[in-house]
Amino acid sequence: MSTSTLVYVERRGGILVRLADFVELTKPRIAVLVLVTVAVAAFVAGWGPPNPLLLFNALLGTTLVAASASALNQWLERDSDALMRRTADRPLPAGRLASTEVLLFSAATIGLGTVYLALAVNWRTAALGLCTWFVYVWIYTPLKTRTSANTAVGAVAGALPVLMGWASVGAPLGLKAFTLFLIVFLWQFPHFMAIAWIYRHQYAAAGLQMLPVVDPSGHRAGVQAVLSALILVPVSLVPAVLELAGGTYFGWALVLGLGQLACAAAFLWRLDEMSARRLLRASLIYLPAVLLALVLGPLTHTHNNTHTHNNTTPANLPAGSQLVSQSPPV
Hints:
By secondary structure, the chain is mostly helical.
């Protein structure tokens, strides 16, 4: 292999490594969850698949805003990240990216994302995106070193993308939208309490005031997980009452909610790592499954409407009658 080839391979490898570091700055797993909630909210708000181009624009703009929030969060937490084993290898504490690079990346993505959402989607979605970014970066992140109430603020930031998806299709932000918001908001407490318990020693070493750090017994974290999971059970059934979901949704939501509640109760009872990991797994099953069940209602409705219209011809109708499409129950 020639010297020039080796130089090319090394340069290409270096570019790919740097690209991977910038991708890691965006916290891809969190970003995927954000995009899923935006898409599901848009789907449910419009009672069926939204305009593909509109949905693409909403997801692209949201991706840019979320990337900025995650990057700036890591910039603000670079010192505490270096003190925790689970985050020490992130691009900033590991020294693979410079602070100025991360700041420029964050500034560029929030600017592009906000303008893109305003121009390609609507101003309300852009405003909600900017609000989400602000709450996550400038309220939630600083509070992590000050009070255990940071979890509640973080849950607000985590649920706001629901309203972004709802607003992206032009639907009014009423009771139905805030019901979905509340489902995602409440879900985060059992999820976060499990994570906070598993990594409590690392959080304590980094000076982050998670509930299991403030209360090493874990009792308050367990109670919070149980109460949130308990409240989530009836709240998750509201979409069936409001006709936001199909007939099978009620049963699925009830079973999933009771299953997560049982895991939360076991965590409170045992307060060990095994029960915390079981609760974490239950939470990771719960939300995607509930969101999928919400989507199946409009999908079934749309399929049934299409089938009905395809099997109805003018010859089957009384004289002077008209084909009238059914209105979505939203």
